[in-house]
Records
---
Amino acid sequence: MKKNIVLVEGAGFCFGVKRAIDIAFDVAQKHKDNVFTLGPIIHNPQVVEKLKDLGVHPIDDISQEKIKTLIIRAHGIPKEKFNEIKKLGCEIIDATCPFVKKAQNLAEKLASEGYQVLIIGDKKHPEVKGILSYAGEKAVVIEKENNQFDKDEKIPSLDKKIGIIQQTTQPLHKAKEIMNRIINSLSEFEEIRIFNTLCNFTSKRLEETKKVAKEVELMLVVGGKNSANTTQLANLCKEIGVKTYHIEDAQEIKIEWFSSAKKIGVTAGASTPQWIIDEVIDRIKKFTN
Ligand code: SF4
């Protein structure tokens, strides 16, 4: 039976990831030897494989290879790492997303002006580790595993002057929850500065996914299993209560998933290429037409 397939607006590559990948493919055309990315350029195994075929390999340990050109991915890297790479004397191609760069620059500026920097985000995420390295010694990250902030989450004791920034991909309502709690204790502070470092691409995709998830019976969330923002999309759909499958590619789709669903939604994380989304749609059509 023919099904209705709804693709979420803005599913797939965000601006920063597309930019980083374009840079990596461009570098692959120009430089043939000893080109590396520090870690995988994105959390998508298929794209990483394509780049490997063109001679661009991910590495974690910069001391293990003879590096001529090193590409820094969209999440950015800690300041100390950047300085370490500089010492190697190789060519550095910095593909850090401009939104992440903005958060790093703000963190550095606030710290230099004497503010204690508070980052709302996931401590283990590479982007946050990078921002934190610019934020001075007193900086703190407020986080909770899987980004679920409890009502009782303890806010660490803070200085009188604080500057708040957010991991770019934080959901707005979670960031607001923390910021409201700090503002409610305004009397304890001399000054609170809040900067918006959230990325619109992420919040828009979350909003659009939410809309679609509410009107379909089945959601397929496409993207790397290790991609934080794809997992966030899958969790959002599950929270809404719609049957959800997180898949990396079309091959994982099973025909029996579609037996009772009349309307199927498809969304994809920021690191999912359009060709994988197209293959997923084609396979759904093949199974349901
Ligand atoms: S999600 Fe936003 S901040 Fe992160 S890489 Fe994409 S555009 Fe940049």
Note: Residues 145-149 have pLDDT under 50 and may be disordered.
---
Amino acid sequence: MRILLGVSGGIAAYKTPDLVRRLKRAGHEVRVACTHSALELVSRTALETVSGEPVLFETFTPRVHAGVEHIDLASWAELALVAPATANVIAKLACGLADDFLTTVLLACPAPLWLAPGMNTRMWDHPATRANVACLVERGARLIGPDEGELACGTTGVGRMSEPERIVEALQAHHARDLVLRGRTVLVTAGATREPLDAVRFLSNPSTGRMGVAVARAALDLGARVILVHAHLGVKVPAGVEAVFASSAVAMQGAVLSHRDRADLVVMTAAVGDFMPPETAPGKVKKEDVGETWNLTLVRTPDILAGLGQDRERSGARRPLLVGFAAETAGGDQDRLLTLARQKLSRKRCDAIFANDVQVPGAGFAGDTNLGLLVFADGRVHPLGPGTKDQVASALLSEVASSPGIVAAPPLP
Ligand SMILES: Cc1cc2nc3c(=O)[nH]c(=O)nc-3n(C[C@H](O)[C@H](O)[C@H](O)COP(=O)(O)O)c2cc1C
């Protein structure tokens, strides 16, 4: 892999020649970009000697390679690793600052970003650093460490940059995983639709889209291209997905239909309203005009999943593979949940349903965790969770990705 190693001015910079050596020994190509502070703490000559490449740290210098150096380096990298990542560099990356060579190249770099922070415990614990790290992780950055131990300032605590050996192990372990969805496109729906009554009111539900976003992230993690068709979310759209906004059930149906031919797999996690007003009043309906009781007439929204299932059956196509989500109230009865899941599976003509019982603690809307049954049309049943929504999403996609429909079919061009 082509790794851009960014070195910033933490005391652990002195360990980076060893890190470069280990990365190269593991078979990677490494180019190093430093901050000015880093070069106070590690020798440029040492880094150039072990990497076999010039160390880049000036934005405005004669070119080492032809072209615009920071853009070329940003495009060259398949992975960007910042080790040590100082509190300062983490803050700049969170804000999108690009006031030196390293932060400029990182801002222009589309490759996955890994950070190995190293700093004093109080700097690490500072609310500003916590918020900056959370922001970067939310955008898809991965953290290695920091570890707990003796720090250069003589104190002990969390903040020590992970040892080079551990950093390389973490990268190797991640990339040794089987990227079972590499070359595949996964369309995920997420969030709560809004069915407008008038210009200011709508019918909706408490879904935050967390589960769908977790599925989108898990699909990216398994190497897929991800189209996230989302309604209203309480969480951020993850970096790296193609996001398509669709507010209502009808809009979501349109968006799904216009992208489904590109998808090998469709995972419908969105909480799509089942009913909508037949028409939306153009302005705000006045209380005075309604009186004490507003009798609403509602009509069924399109059943997007069932529509996809029918279209697929009609055309005889095997793709996309269809996975639905079902929030059920089974009162904690697993057999009842399984029955409801199987009924939905055959009604919708899809390949699998993940059914959760929202009456069970830890399952369902808005929370951080989920658990339920993944029921396949071929009869397989996998209990998933309890676990975080990320864990459940990964387990779900790993099961689905090993389905015959995905394994047997070549990726779409
Ligand atoms: C000897 C020394 C060691 C330092 N170690 C760290 C460190 O481990 N982590 C950190 O965030 N800052 C550390 N600093 C402070 C940074 O070098 C300082 O915030 C600098 O502005 C960071 O610049 P950079 O992020 O552009 O490399 C250290 C400073 C000195 C003088």
Note: The first strand starts at residue 2 and ends at 7.
---
Amino acid sequence: MSSQLLIVDDERLIRWSLEQTLAKAGYEVSSASTGEAALAAIREDPPDLILLDLKLPDTDGLQVLRQIKELSPHLQVLIMTAYADVGTAVEAMKLGAYDYLPKPIDFENLAVTIRNALEASQLKRKVQLLSEKHLYPFHFDRIVGTSRGIREVIAVARKVARSEATTVLIQGESGTGKDLLAKAIHYESARAEEPFMEIACTAMPETLLESELFGHERGAFTDAKTQKKGLFEVAHGGTIFLDEIGDMSGGLQAKLLRILEERSFRRVGGTKDITVDVRVIAASNRDLRQAVDSGTFRKDLYYRLQVVTITLPPLRDRREDIPLLARHFLGYFSREFKKRLPHLSSEAERLLVQYEWPGNVRELRNVIERAMILEDTGDLLPGHLPPEIGGLAPSAVLPAPAFRLPETGVVLEEVEREFVRQALALTRGNQTRAARLLGLTRDELRYRVKKFGLNHKSEEDAE
Ligand SMILES: Nc1ncnc2c1ncn2[C@@H]1O[C@H](COP(=O)(O)OP(=O)(O)OP(=O)(O)O)[C@@H](O)[C@H]1O
Ligand SMILES: [Mg+2]
């Protein structure tokens, strides 16, 4: 697609010659003779680049430039003016013009300037897209759920994000969304442009964790060949997320407390106090109160951390979020797998809502991912769910030894009868759903029900 240019000049001859030249160069060109007309054209269909004469009959060109930038801050503008007026040009550049073309226009130069300006604006847009992509997934509106529990969590977290609070504790069982919430708090705070650093306190031995967090001086220990900054220094201005804080050793707990209280620390092997401005978000899936009682977690650190505590409720305590989350992940995986979005059958939905979810949202996500791999008829059925959730054994979904023909043979009609019976039992007599489970139409199922004399007391077929 060719780039669109808009020429704004009151002199007809100049408009005409520019139009001719630039159209020949492959651009889509339109023009306006007044500032007013230019702004109208931009509102109607914003071009990629504007060539703007600073001396216009109706308004001051600088004023038009200002309005253009208000309307569309990323629009590239090249200024043209007959006066060798450096002062105005400087003013225009300050207002965000890309470059300055003195009149009479040097047409050879023009092509190069336009190409550069367009490239610069594409690059800018790319960078902007990238940074949006980078930030977008972690906003509060990405946290799915309408239950009271999750709404309260988000409301508090929003306040915390905007506040000056420098320590936040997030508690909640595994898979309830602690990571997600920590990132949302960071990316919706005034610290969003600064680093978000994350570390799990379980994942490594104490001395390593210590130098990761606080950095070390050269020669602090055998492997310390160079000086290294720790996460607290790197995260300056931003947020550090200490996951599994309950697993932190006693020695490090004391150092952490010092940072929280004095905002300063020393690198391993260092003598200089380093002061940082970092928000600490700590998370734990164990009850820290209990860890304090059993003596594995410092009481003073606990009190320091729990000033702002957010507790994510387990999924089984907010069951109304389950269908929403299930559909959210169906959408996600259908995009991921480039597969048509399946319909979540009411039977499968009911099973999902009933289940206890010991692994919380993460487990639900995994269950939906698995189901999306198995389903291929456009309907997500109980048979696509794992047995513990009440779906059929996997053998019913995938051809498996359970279905091997016995050497003594079978009567096929009896197998069929048995499966029809089971499908009706599983759907409590709902023939539409039973038919779906067997890959039959409702009429085909009805025919078999009659043939096998399986007049199950059925609930009213809702669908
Ligand atoms: N409310 C939610 N909306 C959308 N996705 C969610 C929600 N809660 C959790 N998730 C997703 O579920 C998965 C698990 O969440 P997360 O990693 O944040 O849990 P966690 O509490 O940190 O678990 P752990 O204690 O095991 O570290 C992630 O893929 C996350 O994106
Ligand atoms: Mg986590």
Note: Confidence is low (pLDDT under 50) at residues 393-401, 458-463.
